[in-house]
């Protein structure tokens, strides 16, 4: 006797039969439905994204590049200009590996568009050294072995350079005992707080803090 449903809805048997048919189709590779020929053609030849000319000043040099206006500064640096020192870690602004300096202030380059920075002075890890002479923060990282795998190091160093500038300007942090003080004493607690946006998966934090402390003291 066939199963019936007084509500004229699908029965348990029809649901099971439908599942078996779908499973066979998926297992054999037979398409469940065929797309219209026009849809396949459209998918094969997508419309290219519009681009715009952008002028960027990076590490005291001028660059002209044609970019999709949605291109992030990080992707412009790495994929279009060959400046691969800035790393793509989380791509969500949470790890700090992509940190660069814009007019001396540190930002996450994965969270900003390249088109927003025409006329700005952009400094990446490649632009910190002067010839063969390392920036004091770079030299301190080498002396203190402030890196292990090195992936986060460019962002750590750029962030430290920007952070030291903030401290010299008297900007307080959540670790500052007196937020109204004219100067900031860069204790280990201050350094850790101010660098908390930069993640090191190798956990080289003690050496990073020591390197930044040395650079701050001019060691």
UniProtKB/TrEMBL annotation:
Keywords: Iron, Metal-binding, Oxidoreductase. Residues 52-128 form the 2Fe-2S ferredoxin-type domain. Pfam families: Fer2, Fer2_2. GO terms for molecular function: carboxylate reductase activity. Its EC number is 1.2.99.6. PANTHER family: OXIDOREDUCTASE WITH IRON-SULFUR SUBUNIT, OXIDOREDUCTASE, IRON-SULPHUR BINDING SUBUNIT-RELATED-RELATED. This is Aldehyde dehydrogenase, Fe-S subunit. It comes from Mesorhizobium ventifaucium. The gene is paoA.
